[in-house]
Amino acid sequence: MRRFIRFTAAIAAALATIGSAFAAADLQQQHADALARIKTAAQQRTLAQTMAKSTCYLMAGVSPQMQAEQAFMASMMFDDNASALLSGGAEGITLPESDASTLAALARISEVWAVFAPASRQVMSGDFHAVPVQQLISLDPVVTGHLEDVLLLLDGVYRQRLVTRQEMVNTVIHAAGQSMLARKAMKELCYITIDLMRARMQQDLRTTIDQFDRVLAAMETGDFDLGIADPPNLAAIKQVMEIKTLWAELRPVLERGLLPEPPDREILAQAAELGDSIVALTDGMLALYLE
Q1: Among positive and negative, which fits the CA dihedral 173, 174, 178, 183?
Q2: What residue spans define the domains of the chain?
Q3: How far is CA 277 from the centre of its chain?
Q4: What is the per-residue burial (b if ≥16 Cβ within 10 Å, else e) of 127-141?
Q5: For range 223-246, the mean pLDDT
Q6: Do residues 83 and 216 touch, judged by C-beta distance below 8 A?
Q7: What is the mean pLDDT of the chain?
Q8: Does residue 275 carry a pLDDT above 70?
């Protein structure tokens, strides 16, 4: 009888251990899924701004082949990410989205994207007709607003599913946002250069520069108000310093767009080279925060 009791207890303990292991694995899967959703949604902002920037550079005739390739790749990645956010099965996202508010927000993006994406592809092909260009300009802030809405919703729904380092969510969002702001600033400088919506773009460019400045300073030392954590290691500190050095070169180039006389194409090319370098460094820094 005692042997039976001990045997039963051993079985119960083993089952409890197995159950705990499955529970822990499930939590880790939820953690990975939540982080992947937030990261993917944050990346969508950069991809949309890459398309907006590159199509303008195409119209300006600056590095047309490279810009067409960037716009095409961004468009493909955006579609892949949108599918993953909705249905799962890719980009580290395991399950379909189930939150009703998030589904509604994703549907709003899809509706606008159904016009924005074909317009951008039309410009990519070299058709600079007024209709697709106007669609790009008018829908750009709408797409940006909807993408920010989705990111906020995902933050609210999925942050609590992170097993550890929930405080890193804001840091990840802002770090990814620096890539978006760099692309956005290049786009605004481009539209100023080709004299389309110049007053609006100059106002937007001032705001974008200020936003990048503020977040960059916060990334260097941490910022409680923005919810940005200190750099997690020496490699991340070095990455921030390299971004700071490049930004010190890019900022005055961008500010040429705030002067009464529009900048020339050489300034646009210089901004593209520096901006692409900043985006690469920012993406690398984001990877360090996610380690």
Answers
A1: positive
A2: 1-158, 167-291
A3: 16
A4: eeeeebbebbbebbe
A5: 87
A6: no
A7: 88
A8: yes
- Which helix or strand (DSSP H or E) is residue 19 part of? helix 2-60
**Rounded-to-integer distance, Cα 287 and Cα 53, Å:** 24
User: d(Cα 172, Cα 179) in Å, to the nearest integer?
Assistant: 11
The conformation of residue 258, written as its DSSP 8-state character, comes to G
CATH code, residues 1-158 = 1.20.120
**Domain 1-158 identical in fold to domain 167-291:** yes
Q: What is the pTM of this model?
A: 0.88
Q: Going by CATH, does the domain composed of 167-291 fall within 1.20.120?
A: yes
- Dump pLDDT digits (tens) for 33-88: 888 899 999 999 999 999 999 999 999 999 999 999 999 999 999 999 999 999 99
Please name the amino acid found at residue 92.
G
| Rg of the chain in Å (alpha carbons) | 23
How far apart, in whole angstroms, are the C-alpha atoms of residue 65 and residue 271? 17
- Kindly report the backbone phi and psi dihedral angles of residue 227, in degrees, each rounded to the nearest multiple of 5, phi listed first: 75, 30
Given a cut of 70, whether residue 7 has pLDDT beyond it is no
Q: Report residue 199's pLDDT band, with 50, 70 and 90 as the boundaries.
A: very high
- Which tokens belong to 243? 């971004």
CA distance 214 to 212: 6
CA dist 241 and 130 (Å) reads 42
Residue 166, helix vs strand vs coil:
coil
Identity (one letter) of the amino acid at 41? Answer: A
Both tokens assigned to 96: 């379909």
d(CA 51, CA 111): 17
Tokens at 56, concatenated? 């303008």
pLDDT at position 22: 41
Q: If you ran DSSP here, which 8-state letter would residue 128 be given?
A: -
26 phi/psi in degrees, rounded to 5: -65, -40
